[in-house]
Amino acid sequence: MAGNTPLLTVNDLSVVFPSPKGDVCAVNNLGFSMGREKIGIVGESGSGKSVTGRAVLGLLPPYARVTASDITFKGRNLLTCSEKQMRQIRGRQISMVMQDPKYSLNPVRTVGNQISEAYTIHHKAGKKQARQKTLDMLKAVRIRNPAQVYGLYPHEVSGGMGQRIMIAMMLIPEPSLLIADEPTSALDVTVQLQVLAILDDLVQERGMGLIFISHDLALVSSFCDRVIIMYGGQIMEVVDAVNLHKSNHPYTKGLLGCLPKIDGNPDHLPTLVRDEAWLKPPPKCFGRGTAL
Amino acid sequence: MTKQALKQPVRILVMLSTTFLGLLLITFLIGRVVPIDPVLAVVGDKALPQVYEKARIAMGLDLPLWKQFFIYISNVLTGDFGTSVLTANPVIDDILRVFPATFELAITATVIGVLAGIPLGIFSAVKRDSFLDHVTRVIGLFGYSLPIFWLGLMGLMFFYARLDLLPGPGRVDVFYEGIVTPVTGFLTLDSMIAGEWEIFRNAVYHLILPASLLGYYSMAYLSRMTRSFMIEQLGQEYILTARVKGVKEWKVIWGHALGNCAIPLITVIALGFGTLLEGSVLTETVFAWPGLGLYLTNSLLNADMNAVLGCTIVVGAIFLGVNLFSDFLYKIMDPRAR
């Protein structure tokens, strides 16, 4: 673990979505602690990865029941924060990049307007200063003609550029923790690495913590320091990324086994082994959650 | 100006004129197939056959149909809709006289509907399924389902007959009629221009009841539409983005979601406005409001075909204009449509 004082500590986090068919427990007694490091959360769809990220930000829909014994960020208990205090933490301290810029950018506002809004919410700045800051940030995510891109609308930029704009928007208030919720899943393979490299550089440069949510094991193991493997809303294991391939947990092994190998020629396609016995009995829960 | 830039207006112009021509063709054909003899309407049913025949030729009804249509088009395009049998005025003069009354009512009603309906719809969507949301929806449902003539009569009974708070039917009290010379045709504006504050006050009082009733109806519809547009937009991911950034909730709603709701709302408001301009026949009848709806009703009841067809063309043209205008606004509001 990098750093001695943890940046974020989560203990006994549970998220339950009530539904007519019975409550769905999306996250069950989850706990982890991280410093200013890159931590990956991996799991199948519906394993509770995204919900965990959103629970930390306090941005789950109001009907979700969120309980935890502890969510501490920089020594501050997020559970007791008022909505107003949470708003000062969101963006400024903890930010989130989502999957598809096609949906996560407001279609009727210019890119520049949306980025500078993120800055002016948390910093006292005039229009000119915010604009300059935005142009600098666009340059930082390697957009070559920031002045031109500033005035574009989201539908006028490509997916890769959209995601870089999203990263710029989320990093401009200089947060200390970034949650990246499958930031490259909606992108072309060719631009995936490009976007990741930008993300990596900026996180490194600013000494931020990063929670990288993904279902791409290879990507996570090469990109992150530690990996959390989730299944059914619970943590199966936490391993150092370099030791991921040595993991003994049957689920991790299963996930790794499902990756296609270029030289392998298996007689049958491997299927993922799932065992309900791995799960601690959830309190009053039925089934598993679905991805948000 | 490049060729590209010219293409768009030309395309719109072609589309508009084609639609308008189609409208003229339909009204022309309706005028020929309805079982009303325009000649009889002029000469009366006791006229001698020679007189009848003479009138028929004078009206050009012996010509082949395509020739008649051609004459009809050129007449309409020069603003000649024929003469009203009922009023003996040129139809176009009648329409120009009555239309401002409808326009005044429609604008007031739309303003009321927009100012009340949109905030109510937003409020309903944000506080979804709360008690107040249900109350708002019930109020809206009432407005949407109660017949407007009944509400009009009830309104007159309470506020005019019982409480005597508001004046009765008409645009203005009888003894104020015809004092102000029409400039805009809007009685409220004209009386203001003339400095006749007494008449202005009276005209506003007369406007209150019919305009609020139509406004209530339009509010009911708008609040329902706004609510559903808003709920849809609030579920979008860019709203989550805004919240992640730390945007205040009221700014998320008014600054981010409403901008996206506004796009479909424009069409709804414009079409509602168009419907009101067509003359709210029932409301105008109940309130004896001398507008297009009342004129159209009287013409219909008296088989005054020239007037009816003239009104039909005007209403059609209004709809074309309103649609054009809403497309134009659409392009301003939605960068994707530019």
Descriptors:
heterodimer, A: 292 residues, alpha/beta, Rossmann fold, 2 domains, six-stranded mixed β-sheet, five-stranded antiparallel β-sheet, 10 helices, globular, B: 338 residues, mainly alpha, MetI-like fold, 0% strand
Description:
Chain A has 292 residues and is an alpha/beta fold. Chain A folds into two domains: 1-93 and 178-184 and 206-292, 3-Layer(aba) Sandwich (Rossmann fold); 100-174, no CATH class. In chain A, 33% of the residues lie in helices and 22% in strands. Chain A has helices spanning 49-57, 83-89, 101-104, 111-122, 127-140, 146-150, 159-171, 189-206, 217-223, 250-257; strands at residues 8-17, 24-34, 38-43, 65-67, 70-73, 76-77, 94-97, 177-181, 209-214, 226-231, 234-240. Chain A has a six-stranded mixed β-sheet with strand order 7-8-9-3-10-11, sandwiched between helices. In chain A, strands 1, 2, 4, 5 and 6 form a five-stranded antiparallel β-sheet that branches. In chain A, a hairpin with a 2-residue loop joins β5 and β6 (76-77). Chain A is globular and about 60 Å long. The two termini of chain A are 29 Å apart. Mean pLDDT of chain A is 87; it is low at 284-292. Chain B folds into two domains: 3-77, no CATH class; 96-291, MetI-like fold, CATH 1.10.3720. Helix content of chain B is 75%, strand content 0%. Chain B has 14 helices and no strands. In chain B, α5 runs antiparallel to α6 (131-145) and α13 (292-301) runs antiparallel to α14 (305-333). Chain B starts with a helix and ends in a 5-residue tail after the last helix. Classes of the chains: A alpha/beta (292), B mainly alpha (338). Chains A and B meet through α2, α4 and α7 of A and α10 and α11 of B.
Briefly say what this structure is.
The complex is a heterodimer of chains A (292) and B (338). Chain A has 292 residues and is of the alpha/beta class.
Low-confidence stretches of chain A: 284-292
Chain pair sharing the greatest interface: A-B, 30 and 20 residues
End-to-end C-alpha gap of chain B: 17 Å
Q: What would the average pLDDT of chain A be, to the nearest integer?
A: 87
Main sheet overview of chain B: none
Q: Report helical residue fraction of chain B.
A: over 70%
Number of structurally distinct domains of chain B: 2
* Number of helical stretches of at least 4 residues of chain A: 10
CATH 2nd-level architecture of the largest domain in chain B: Orthogonal Bundle
